[in-house]
């Protein structure tokens, strides 16, 4: 990508940066609403854990399905128009929640989620290049970090806003036997906030359409070609990186979006805002990564440490106590936060373990792909389907006789073990063992 010559580096970079920052915040806000939406719909629609996990499935599978079509749309309409179209689609998706809430139809909620995921994919595909190109190349990494922190910070705020506007009296209802009047009241609470969200995002789409953003043009680069490799699948470090990213997105979504439902199953009153704890730890981890990588620690070592922490925490969730809040009493209560059950605290702390995995895996997986770099990027984007599939697998496991929700979190442990393997060995492999070369 290259900014056209008529746009200077010094010219009006503040306004484009502010616009892009708002878009990244909205992307994070809409994405991490899912953590509050799950327990809400479980109660309003009387869903099983597996049914509720399809709220996540419909969102993340849309990201996977529309990854490549979004790139085609961008080539046809350009990056700026692509952002406006993505925002318009998100506005439509927000309005789709209104008939879903009025009719209590689960299929309409899933359709709205699918539309939201597809629209966000288009927006992300269009907005990411601007982060690199709207300022000096030397400070691109700093801009990426700032946008990432904004995106994750929105994940802290979104559950709080959702709980305040929509779930105000939810904790007063019986989690097992809410009356029909209670359910209708909760469903009606969803309407006005989503009307406001749709209007705001729609107006922002118009603002982006006419905003003074620089135009980006495709650039071509000479590929580095390995004559012995005629497919992206001949690069083990890419294929294993795709698997690692698939598993990572799955555990990230489990940690961020199932914590509310899990807290509700334990009878914890503040379950609607539990996603905020996971995202707060993620922001802390992101900031630590910005400070320490690569100055004090390499991406590979950071990924290794994250995987080890993930293994320890996932096992702590499974074997921890729901009756004790000793960990929160040490780390959270002195800061004025509520006492979370130990297993909930460990689940939230996975945000810290997950924070730098995404930015660590990408450069390792795309290393020295040459002409297959774009294919590798597409495969990595499609790995986001892990966020659709693993929560369904976990909740299905939870419904097996004798398992339950707490034990079901054991599915995360092999995921982190694979990430550990990738950090230690997988990313260094350049040939399959059965290859002739």
Automatic annotation (TrEMBL):
One of its GO terms (cellular component) is plasma membrane. Pfam families: MFS_1. One of its GO terms (molecular function) is galactose transmembrane transporter activity. GO terms for biological process: D-glucose transmembrane transport. SUPFAM superfamilies: MFS general substrate transporter. It is found in: Cell inner membrane. PANTHER family: L-FUCOSE-PROTON SYMPORTER (PTHR43702), N-ACETYL GLUCOSAMINE TRANSPORTER NAGP (PTHR43702:SF12). Intake of glucose and galactose. This is Glucose/galactose MFS transporter. The gene is gluP.
């Amino acid at each position: 990508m290259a900014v056209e010559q008529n746009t200077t580096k010094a010219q009006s970079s503040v306004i484009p940066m502010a616009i892009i920052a708002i878009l990244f915040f909205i992307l994070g806000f809409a994405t991490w609403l899912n953590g509050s939406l799950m327990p809400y719909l479980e109660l309003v629609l009387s869903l099983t854990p597996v049914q509720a996990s399809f709220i996540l499935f419909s969102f993340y599978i849309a990201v996977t399905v529309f990854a490549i079509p979004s790139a085609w749309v961008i080539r046809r309409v350009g990056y700026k128009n692509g952002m406006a179209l993505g925002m318009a689609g998100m506005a439509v998706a927000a309005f789709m929640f209104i008939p879903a809430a009025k009719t209590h139809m689960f299929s309409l909620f899933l359709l709205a989620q699918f539309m939201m995921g597809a629209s966000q994919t288009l927006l992300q595909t269009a907005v990411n290049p601007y982060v690199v190109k709207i300022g000096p190349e030397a400070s691109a990494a700093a801009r990426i970090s700032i946008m990432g922190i904004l995106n994750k910070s929105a994940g802290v705020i979104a559950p709080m806003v959702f709980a305040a506007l929509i779930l105000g009296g939810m904790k007063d209802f019986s989690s097992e036997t809410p009356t029909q009047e209670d359910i209708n009241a909760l469903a009606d609470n969803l309407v006005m906030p989503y009307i406001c969200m749709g209007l705001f995002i729609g107006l922002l789409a118009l603002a982006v359409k006419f905003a003074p953003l620089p135009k980006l043009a495709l650039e071509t680069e000479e590929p580095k070609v390995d004559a012995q490799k005629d497919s992206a699948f001949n690069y083990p470090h890419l294929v294993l990186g795709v698997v690692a990213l698939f598993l990572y997105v799955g555990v990230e979504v489990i940690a961020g979006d199932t914590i509310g439902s899990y807290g509700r199953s334990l009878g914890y009153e503040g379950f609607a805002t539990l996603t905020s704890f996971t995202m707060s730890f993620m922001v802390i981890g992101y900031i630590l990564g910005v400070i320490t990588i690569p100055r004090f620690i390499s991406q590979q070592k950071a990924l290794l440490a994250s995987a080890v922490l993930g293994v320890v925490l996932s096992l702590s969730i499974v074997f921890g106590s729901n009756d004790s809040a000793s960990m929160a009493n040490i780390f959270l209560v002195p800061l004025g936060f509520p006492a979370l059950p130990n297993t909930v605290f460990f689940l939230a702390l996975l945000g810290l373990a997950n924070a730098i995995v995404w930015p660590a895996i990408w450069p390792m997986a795309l290393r020295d792909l040459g002409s297959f770099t774009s294919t590798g990027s597409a495969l990595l984007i499609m790995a986001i389907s892990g966020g659709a599939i693993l929560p369904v697998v976990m909740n299905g496991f939870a419904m097996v006789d004798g398992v339950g929700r707490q034990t079901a979190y054991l599915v995360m442990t092999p995921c982190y073990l694979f990430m550990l393997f990738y950090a230690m060995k997988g990313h260094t492999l350049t040939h399959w063992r059965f290859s002739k070369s």
